[in-house]
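Collaboration report, partner site 2.

Our partner group contributed sequences for two proteins of shared interest, and the home lab folded both. The records are reproduced in the order in which they were received, starting with the first partner submission.
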Amino acid sequence: MEKQEKNKISVEIYGHTYKMVGLESMGHMRLVASIVDDRMREMNVHNPSLDSTKLAVLTAVNTVHDYLLLKEQLEQLEEELKKLKG
């Protein structure tokens, strides 16, 4: 099996620089970092008294919430598709 080379990139999220390493494209990793940065800044507007750690946790909680809603919607659509094919 061919070993895929990992991409390494430095990104800035909420004023801090992080090194990201992954098999995804650099563009994908930049997009992920940009979305996290945007969401943290959005959370800061609504919760200006939170420090960056609490903002990061709140951002993670909201992101997982959104993920679970999308996963549920996908599962419902897959069930509907099965019924239509059935």
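Second partner submission, folded after the first:
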Amino acid sequence: MLVSGKELFEDARRGGYAVGAFNLNNMEILQAIIEAAEEERSPVILQASQGGLRYAGLEYVAAMAKAAAAKATVPVALNLDHGTDFSQVARCIRHGFSAVMIDGSQLPFEENIAITKRVIDMAHPNGISVEAELGMIGGIEDDVVVAEKDATFTDPDQAAEFAERTKCDALAIAIGTAHGVYRGEPKLDFERLSEISKKTPVNLVLHGASGISEEAIKKAIPYGIVKINIDTELRQAFAQAVKETVKNNPDEIDPRKILGPAKQAMKEAVRAKMRIFGSSGRA
């Protein structure tokens, strides 16, 4: 069933767990995510980045995801990930997304507030939740590129002001995570996370969580983290399975036999994350 992101956030906050948000780019990834959610009895967020929408086509992504959600027996939200363009957000809303993210983190503070409020004015009357971002998470997420030297952590006082003025449903914060593959072990700033949590009751989102330890994830959730984004680890599982299949079966030409093992590998990766996030059995 297709539900708003806000509904999932509120349930997660009350239940003391986080919902995984997994990026999809094709049918096999979508199937892997939904099958994992069904088997784990977990709520789930399907999300597509602007690059993913260009690759697969907005109409295809929306149609596939809505069909999967309609058939699913667990709550499913469909989210735009890192929307940086107002018109792109509007197109996703028109195509039935139940959640959107407007990423104005690279804009000056007042401009970020302004574009977030503009999106909320469009989304909330339609029952669609809005996630914003404050602070800049390093790394590459399709269209969003932030050099390590330009990454900035979220200021707790600004987070409180931003949440109060925008009334966003969730806020992605920068506390030491990064998009893409980590070089070395990431260190999360739990003191900063604690301060943000104390200063504002807004639902918090952790981006760039692929590669973050299970211990760190479980430590972060009680501070109000209700949504955790995973993309890189699905790509890694997909790529490794395809490489092994082609290596072991060099004459194979059937896409189903090449992509089938990749789908299974991604499903197991998603299931493992759901258990860590505490969302298994919460549907």
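Feedback sent to the partner group on the second submission included the following. The chain has a mean pLDDT of 92. The longest helix spans residues 255-277.
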